[in-house]
Amino acid sequence: MLVVAASVATAAARTPDNDDIYAKTASIDSPFYYPNLKMKYDIWEAPMSDEEMYYLYYGYAYRPEYKPLVSDPYQTRVMEIMSKIAIEEPMVSDLDELVMAASQSLASDPFSPQMLNIMAYAYGALGDKKREQAYYERMNAVIKVIADSGDGLREKTPMHIIMFSHGLDLIAAKGWNYRKSQVISRNVEFVPFEVPHNKVKGYYFDFSRIYWNKPEGYTFKRARTWQFNNLKPREYK
pTM score, two decimals? Predict the structure, then answer.
């Protein structure tokens, strides 16, 4: 596992301003025009600023390709590969297959910390240190923007996510186990930890964006995400 050093408790949380995000990511004259931000994210020649990541991550909820209620068959394939792969001494053929499946999964959820983590692992195992570092940095940047959106300690100060799995991945990236989430209100869920950490019993997440365009009569059943697949920690300088 690639360890994330993102702090969840922030001194000045930035609750997403939906009107501002839509306006700035939709305007071609804005420095945060979405196609330009996404291109910079995909290329990742250098880490993006916190401000850029804020508009990129939450701006995705306004994009036509944002479909959080559509199942991802490639994620299932990734998990099948991870269940059989020899983590310490993987075969190149397995790694190539893993990269292909995870890349296809990222096409529908480009900010999945879990898939970004897996891509970093795969490229690292293949000896491609540049891509390994880039995916590691993307993963940390996504987790940081979520962590900066609220302290997650109360229903009124939740962290804001655009996919249910992102909140679980944030917890898993800290090396903590969690139990089944509990829906607290129309917009907020509580994810309890298996054991308290620093007297904190769990985190609150605002999932409202996921249901903005929910089809009428749609019933969505959430599957628990895997805990970062037992990938061992790596050090980056």
Answer: 0.88
